[in-house]
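STRUCTURE:
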């Protein structure tokens, strides 16, 4: 016998305008993450701008536009914050319309449980099922812990969202919801990673020999991790696994090539595990009600102790720059916020502790600025850049000139190794800078 939730649903059904009427000046509002962005509620809340002051909103990896941020450049009425900047949110930061919140993802639930106020959470969900549950879809990584701590829970039903299977906390029951909003939504955005460059593919080819059959992969955001997925799909490796905070089209390519089976995993055997997903509509179709994939909160996916239980866990992330001490900047260029810490540090620690595990941080050796000037991504020493991963936690670093391992290496050994994978045009300069800092030995290679 299935209980009828129709009456309760009708009682809680509101228009977007009615639902956002609960927001008061000074409130903290949460939009959660990725496709959890409540499009209709966001527009309705922005329409109340002149009635409200100091309403603070959190989100992360949201695509634009965000109406509450765009409608108030004064930030007197609405102030937007992000845990991890999407390309759109980065542009908001550049305009002074978004403030970044430093964090590591595996602590996401704890931040809300112990430290943060959430007056209202507004989150997009799938249509309710016959048992009274709304599915958090590809937003499972962060949504449930936020909703649990919110004073008022508003769900916005988006008929386009894929329904994902989960380990836990992938759903919310109607009994835990205060208001329900329906409406017409645009099709899901088709967001694909940038096409890999020849440099990306070269880096991927250099990493390939370090991988073994049965390895489980975490691929971060960016063209280099995407290139790794493409190279692996063309390789002879087999029975690869997925355990990742962010599921992208790279995993779909691995699945379609027959490489992604998850058969060799010690935990979650047979299941590709993820927290959130951003990608193409083909990706969302693959994730929809798929028994082979399972969504979990990031407190599970990104916890180093969980990651360490997976044999041959391989983490592949990208960065902006590395200095000669081995410090990694992956989220800022100078003081300009580009993305966020995300799970890079979580997976560095976890993969390093895995039996057979390896953690790679990848970058091109050089970049060209807007004025056409070429710069080395290996720098003498950071001066103002935000450090994402400390030198004490960094494992493998890869450029198109090679792969080095910094685990247990002294300052001069690090400098020598980093110079060896720098662009040849900058190696002599880096050696001189290392000598100034007394981290270059006379016996070092020149």
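SEQUENCE:
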């Amino acid at each position: 016998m299935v209980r009828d939730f129709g009456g309760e649903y009708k009682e809680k059904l509101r228009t977007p305008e009615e639902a956002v009427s609960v927001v008061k000046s000074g409130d903290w509002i949460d939009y959660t993450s990725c496709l959890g962005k409540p499009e209709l509620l966001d527009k309705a809340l922005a329409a109340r701008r002149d009635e409200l002051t100091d309403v603070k909103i959190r989100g992360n990896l949201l695509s634009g536009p965000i109406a509450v941020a765009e409608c108030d450049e004064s930030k007197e009425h609405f102030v937007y914050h992000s845990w991890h900047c999407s390309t759109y949110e980065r542009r908001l930061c550049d305009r002074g319309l978004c403030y970044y919140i430093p964090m590591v993802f595996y602590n996401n639930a704890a931040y809300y449980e112990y430290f943060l106020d959430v007056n209202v959470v507004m989150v997009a969900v799938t249509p309710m099922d016959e048992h009274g549950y709304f599915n958090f879809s590809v937003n499972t990584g962060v949504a449930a812990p936020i909703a649990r701590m919110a004073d008022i829970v508003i769900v916005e039903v988006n008929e386009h969202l894929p329904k994902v299977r989960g380990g836990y906390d992938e759903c919310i029951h109607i009994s835990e919801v205060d208001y329900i909003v329906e409406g017409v939504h645009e099709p899901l955005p088709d967001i694909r990673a940038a096409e890999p460059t020849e440099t990306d593919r070269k880096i991927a080819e250099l990493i390939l020999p370090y991988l073994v059959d049965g390895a489980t992969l975490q691929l971060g955001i960016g063209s280099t991790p995407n290139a790794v997925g493409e190279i692996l799909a063309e390789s002879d490796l087999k029975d690869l696994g997925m355990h990742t905070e962010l599921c992208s089209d790279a995993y779909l390519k691995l699945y379609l090539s027959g490489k992604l089976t998850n058969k060799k995993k010690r935990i979650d055997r047979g299941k590709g595990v993820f927290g959130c997903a951003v990608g193409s509509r083909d990706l969302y179709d693959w994730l929809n009600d798929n028994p082979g994939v399972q969504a979990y909160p990031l407190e599970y996916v990104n916890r180093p102790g969980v990651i360490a239980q997976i044999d041959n866990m391989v983490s592949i992330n990208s960065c902006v720059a590395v200095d000669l001490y081995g410090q990694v900047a992956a989220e800022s260029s100078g003081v300009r916020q580009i993305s966020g810490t995300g799970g890079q540090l979580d997976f560095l620690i976890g993969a390093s502790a895995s039996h057979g595990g390896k953690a790679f941080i990848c970058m091109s050796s050089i970049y060209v600025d807007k004025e056409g000037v070429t710069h080395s991504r290996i720098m003498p020493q950071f001066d103002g850049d935000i450090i994402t991963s400390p030198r004490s936690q960094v494992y493998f670093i890869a450029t198109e000139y090679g792969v080095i391992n910094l685990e247990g290496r002294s300052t001069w050994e690090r400098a020598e190794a980093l110079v060896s994978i720098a662009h040849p045009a900058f190696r002599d300069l880096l050696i001189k800078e290392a000598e100034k800092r007394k981290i270059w030995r006379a016996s070092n290679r020149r």
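REMARK: The longest helix spans residues 223-233.
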